[in-house]
Amino acid sequence: MSSSVVHGCNKPLIDRFTVGADGWRRCWEEGVTPWDLGQPTPAVVDLVNSGTLPGGDHDGRATTVLVPGCGAGHDVVALSGAGRFVVGLDISEAAIHKATQRAAAADGNSFDFVAADFFTWEPPDKFDIIFDYTFFCAFEPSMRPAWAKRIAELLKQDGELITLMYLAEGQEAGPPFNTAVVDYEEVLNPLGFVMNSIQDNEVAVQSRKGMEKMARWKRMANPTSLNSAGETQTSP
Ligand SMILES: C[S@@+](CC[C@H](N)C(=O)[O-])C[C@H]1O[C@@H](n2cnc3c(N)ncnc32)[C@H](O)[C@@H]1O
Fold it and tell me: Which of 164, 207, 204, 202 is CA-nearest to residue 184?
């Protein structure tokens, strides 16, 4: 999703589709998906190959991974296997249909696709890992606290959040909306998330070079709890 998606050849995307669930659905139904790399994100392939991604036995079951806003599902399949079961979630039925078709040849026992709204979806279990790429930046900044609250609700207390941050700047509108590292920190830190590492994405595709960083986050061990508003409360 380069800036040109908004300001250049894909300007009609913004003119025709308002931001929101219907807008995303229409993008997929009409095949207007300029953000889709058509392949796994290279940084995801590197992450899998790095051996630093948890995988394997968790009390006799696989490590579970959620990819919210998975689109055509390339990263879902890339992250799956080696003891990981990955759920790709997207609000668009058409995206999930495409993802399911594309993934038909892969090992279907290690991933699944779900068409649902990230903000209201209620999975049976929380996840060990959540991987976010070009999802945070897809929402208006006013929705970022709600994004963080859902991440906290969907991730196990000792789980890991991995954000491949697309740091768009100079945008008059979105998506993608202007995004800086501090924007993640502002909504995640109050919920107890601590950034353990951050590095430039050296293998970003050409149009995104110099604009991406990968950060890995853990939550502090129970220093606080969430109240009903999703705000932190210090444990007594
Ligand atoms: C910019 S695209 C990125 C897709 C994918 N991560 C990729 O890199 O190709 C954002 C995706 O989020 C999905 N999406 C938007 N709002 C959503 C929501 N509330 N719940 C689930 N998916 C949503 C859209 O349908 C779209 O596929």
Answer: 164
Neighbours of 216 (CB within 10 A): 18
Q: Residue of the nearest CA to atom 12 in ligand 1?
A: 69
Cα of 134 vs centre of ligand 1, distance in Å, is 7
Predicted TM-score (pTM) of this structure: 0.89
Cβ 226 vs Cβ 191: under 8 Å: yes
DSSP element (H, E) containing 166 = strand 155-166
For ligand 1, the distance from its centroid to the CA atom of residue 111, given in whole angstroms, is: 17
Residues 6/17, Cβ–Cβ less than 8 Å? no
Is 4-234 CATH 3.40.50.150?
Answer: yes
Q: Report the distance separating Cα 184 and Cα 163, nearest Å.
A: 9
For residues 86 and 89, give the distance between their C-alpha atoms in angstroms, rounded to a whole number.
10
Q: Does 36 sit in the ligand 1 pocket, CB within 6 Å? A: yes
Element (H, E) at 95: helix 93-102
Tell me the pLDDT tens digit for each residue of 174-226: 899 999 999 999 999 999 999 999 999 999 999 999 999 999 999 987 655 45
Indicate if ligand 1 lies below 6 Å from the C-beta of 119: yes
Question: What would you report as the CA-atom Rg of the chain, rounded to the nearest whole angstrom?
Answer: 17
Residue 24 beta carbon below 6 angstroms from any ligand 1 atom: yes
Write the CA distances from 46 to 53, 55, 78, 232, integer angstroms. Answer: 10, 15, 10, 34
Reply yes or no on whether the pLDDT at 107 is more than 60. yes
Ligand 1 pocket member 137 (CB < 6 A) = no
Domain range summary for the chain, segments of one domain joined by +: 4-234
